[in-house]
Amino acid sequence: MALPSKRTVAQARARIERIRAALPAFDLVCSGTLVRRMMTCGKPNCRCASDPDARHGPYWQWGHMRLGKPTHRHVSEQQALVLRQAIDNYRQIKKLLKAWEENTERIIDALQPPQP
Q: Is 116 contained in some domain?
């Protein structure tokens, strides 16, 4: 296995700086998923019981992990708009952190080659 060159280290450091510069642009961050649902009400005489197109809604449901357990809650349409952006931000930040970690590993390997 070839050792990373000084140029590779410089490129990795430059990538990390670009990642650092991108992080302050994020405002709200949230994990989870957002689902739009059409629901039946459970009343046997309601149209929604027999006609799928007559279901009530749309209702928005946010699912995420809280204290290690899956949690779901209904949110308003306005909250759903904010959550959609926050979830997208979270996913982008995770990608940036993964790239940061990979570049850090390149730098570490260049500073101290792995021992067999």
A: no
